[in-house]
Write a structure and sequence with these properties.
The protein is globular. By secondary structure, the protein is mainly beta. The relative contact order is 0.30. The chain has 1 helix and 12 strands; from the N terminus they run ββββββββββββα. A hairpin with a 6-residue loop joins strand 2 and strand 3. The strands form 3 sheets. Strands 1-9-6-11-4 form a 5-stranded antiparallel sheet, with no helix packed on it. Bound molecules: dTDP-4-keto-6-deoxyglucose.
Length: 133
């Protein structure tokens, strides 16, 4: 599946750590940054795929699960470390769930927001990827 966990370079310090994302670590030019916060633990976010957009998700605080589907296989990745980034390429269905209290999901995105880039229906997603093979 076209997803990858990235180790974010960090500078460890007894007084507190710094994690740094710069060119070379992020495999695309960042055009947008957003974050999900104040998320009720029962929330389910995502439930869509993107035609073009590539993104990196980071659990800046707390934890959550990311369910990933490519139309054939499914995988669940628990995000719970602020020095790990989950690179999700285009054409991957994602669902975010099991948010811990205080969880914050930071997202680095390769494109500005465009609702036309979303596929928000799973059947349409499967039809879309099969038609692009
Ligand atoms: C993703 C997951 C991790 C905007 O107007 N601009 C934006 O940049 C974003 C991200 C959203 N919106 C609007 C669109 C909807 O009216 O905010 C509303 C909620 O968006 P959505 O239902 O897409 O939120 P999530 O949390 O389900 O998904 C978001 C991203 O859209 C998505 O790309 O991978 O976070």
């Amino acid at each position: 599946m076209n997803v990858k966990l990235i180790d974010i370079p960090k500078i460890l310090n007894r007084e507190g750590n710094i994690a740094v994302l710069e060119n070379g670590v992020v495999p695309f030019d960042i055009k947008r940054v957003y974050y999900l916060y104040d998320i009720p633990s029962t929330s389910k976010r995502g439930g869509h795929a993107h035609k073009k957009l590539n993104q990196i998700l980071i659990a800046i605080s707390g934890s959550f699960d990311v369910v990933l589907k490519d139309g054939k296989n499914q995988q669940v990745i628990t995000m719970n470390k602020p020095d790990k980034g989950l690179l999700i390429s285009n054409n991957i269905w994602r669902e975010l769930e099991n948010f811990s209290s205080g969880a914050v999901c930071l997202v680095l995105a390769s494109e500005v927001y465009d609702e036309d880039d979303y596929i928000r229906n799973y059947k349409s997603f499967v039809a879309y990827i099969n038609s692009n093979k």
